[in-house]
TrEMBL record:
Protein name: Bifunctional aconitate hydratase 2/2-methylisocitrate dehydratase
Pfam family, one: Aconitase_B_N
Superkingdom: Bacteria
Protein EC: 4.2.1.3
Species, as recorded: Citrobacter koseri (Citrobacter diversus)
Coiled coil: none
Annotated GO MF terms: aconitate hydratase activity
Source lineage: Bacteria, Pseudomonadati, Pseudomonadota, Gammaproteobacteria, Enterobacterales
Amino acid sequence: MQGGYNIHPLIDALDDAKLAPIAAKALSHTLLMFDNFYDVEEKAKAGNEYAKQVMQSWADANGS
């Protein structure tokens, strides 16, 4: 996925226990986050495990 209008709902879904695994997988494959990166980073710093997984995936370049 490149990014776009789907980004904010996916980031919001990281806080939903049922949707978080799906959202994390989708975000891990997303290339164009722009400033939305900081939203995921904020969730990761707040302890959201799925946001941490997304950040690690980006750091490892696993999403491509």
